[in-house]
Amino acid sequence: MEGKNVKPKRGKNIVLRLLALLVTVALVLGAVALVVFRDQLNIDALRRWFTYRTLERSDSGQAESFYFDGDLTDTFRNLDGDLLVCSSNAICLYSGSGTRYINQSVTMSQPAVSVWGNTAVVYDAGGTSLYVIRERAIVHTITEGATILSASMDQSGSLVVVTHESGYRGVVTVYNKDFTPQVSLRLSSRFILDGVLSGGGDLLAVVTAGQSGGSFVSALELYDLDQSQTEDLSPSAQCDLGGAIPLGLEVEDSTVWVLGDTGLTVSNGRGEVQGTLDWSDRYIKNFSLDGDGFAAVLLGKYRAGSQAELAVADKNGTITASMEVNEQVLSLSAAGRYLAVLTADRLDIYTQDLTLYASLSGTKGARKVLLREDGSAMLIGVDYARLYVPD
Fold this sequence. Notes:
mainly beta; 4-stranded antiparallel beta sheet
């Protein structure tokens, strides 16, 4: 009848809402369970099964070896599951089964590589060449200009290049994802050793070096790019690193890690030191800042010899796990929540609390290991490589 109000069917709406609520609760509980019970459920094993289900492997979990152009003196990195090999005369990229996607002739004296996610920056440290690799192709190239000291990318696609230019002791240039210069930091009073961006691209962390009272001193300087988009930049915060020689710099979720020859300094994005570690009485033999939320370092009482301590530190600068190592460690690699230790005849993969996750005996001459976030690893020999996938 015209003009008559039709009442909604409340019973049906209530049922639909109840079903939607139950589905939402189930999804939330499922997500929480995946995080809380990740180790027990072995989610990474499921990821590996989907990723490598078509890859032929031996009973030990190793794929067939493939040969690469180069040798053990080259620089190797994992790039989104592929093997990146950089030498003084070539840049090559291989899949886990050996398919070659890039074979670029170059001329570099000291090749160096920085990787973030699916992007790599290959540059000639002390030279002028730089190559950006993404989606199995070289997408940007620089072959002339100022002397490059370091280079890195962030997840937004921004490129950070530290150079030495006439009239300055250090210059940092930030490029956007189209490789157009956006910000330039130029210092005349102190040297710039390294610089990286936060994941969001709004925080620039720079390590500088100079002299104080005739002694070498280094410092961590932070610049807020969200508020300062000019060439006249001033640090928003600064942390004294003492006489440490910086070896590694990483920014992860606004946490800044500076690992040096005598210790570790961890700061937040406001320049407040969250924790420090001192190993000035020992020698650093190897380290990695590539894990999620932890730093791994191999320390020895003596420069030579195989006896050492493997330690893992969190973002508060606290050692959360450590173990004695009595074998010569050939290679150390971290990724995701895992840490790989390669010795002469064995590969051990640990979780970040140094619980043994997987072990492979008889590594057949492997001398380097590159770990992946899912717990698989690339083993590298003199001129060959092969993938190891734990069960």
